[in-house]
Amino acid sequence: MSGDNWSRQELARFLRSRRARVMPEQVGLPTGGGRRTKGLRREEVAVLAGLSPTWYTYLEQGRDIKPSVQVLDSLARVLDLSEDERRYIHTLVHGQVTNPQPLDGPAWSGEVMGPLVGLMNDSEYPVYATDIHCNLTAWNRACTEWYDDWAGYCPEHRNMLRWLLVSPKAKERLPDWERVTTDVVARWRSELAKWPHDEGLTARVAEFARISPLFATLWRRHDVQEHRTITRRFRHPKRGLHTLRMALLVTPDEPMIGLVIHFPVPA
């Protein structure tokens, strides 16, 4: 069995199992009338999801059709899927998750990420947490030496990309400032494609274009680059020019929060 065929059959089996789990009263349907089907009927799922009953039947039969992201999310709503289950059907159909939401568990930006950065407070190298908006949500003491004292900024200006664009300290600490900024904008643009419904991101783009001609120019270029481990040069006030390697760690629990860790480049 080919990979595509297996995915279609697995999606069909999964949808049938989730449909059997949803009781009619959960979606406002009557429970009487000699109902023999456990859970919802196929045509009921189709109508509630705004689909053709025949088309949905084909889907449960594993036919060679490919539902859109919107259709999958509509089915997830009707079948009361958890975020784990919603991600699963997206992966089966498209090979990746679109617009992932936080999984059940601690809030990484508060309950976990802050204490995790705190554990690295004695490190001589920077560690910081940032969200999809580039907001800096936590950082260790070393960041004040290698980057800046972000605690001195008002909360709405504690943003890595904004800092790069407007802070004189960014040009002072980063000898390759323009290349770094170009790289961050390209990586941010690539990341934004995963969150098409986040209006806050659209507002951030407009804000950055308003305060920075460089950002406006870079944004019009449409350069994109995926996140990867990179090196960055710093002009440290005591150590002078120094190169560090940077790695981004992201947890599936909270895909909008990332931990950026700096460490020495091996000799």
Could you tell me the number of beta strands?
Answer: 5
| Largest sheet: spatial strand order | 2-1-5-4-3
Number of helices: 12
Q: What is the N-to-C order of secondary-structure elements (H for helix, E for strand)?
A: HHHHHHEEHHHHHHEEE
**Residues in helix, %:** 40-55%
Architecture (CATH level 2) name of the largest domain: 2-Layer Sandwich
CATH third-level topology of the largest domain: Beta-Lactamase
| Unreliable runs | none
The main sheet comes to: 5 strands, antiparallel
Average pLDDT metric: 89
Oligomer classification: single chain
- Count structural domains: 2
CATH class of the largest domain: Alpha Beta
Q: What structural keywords apply?
A:
267 residues; alpha+beta; Beta-Lactamase; 2 domains; 5-stranded antiparallel beta sheet; 46% helix
3D architecture notes:
Pfam families: HTH_31, MLTR_LBD. This is Helix-turn-helix transcriptional regulator. It comes from Actinomadura luzonensis. With 267 residues, this protein is of the alpha+beta class. The chain is built from 12 helices and 5 strands. A 5-stranded antiparallel beta sheet has the order 2-1-5-4-3.
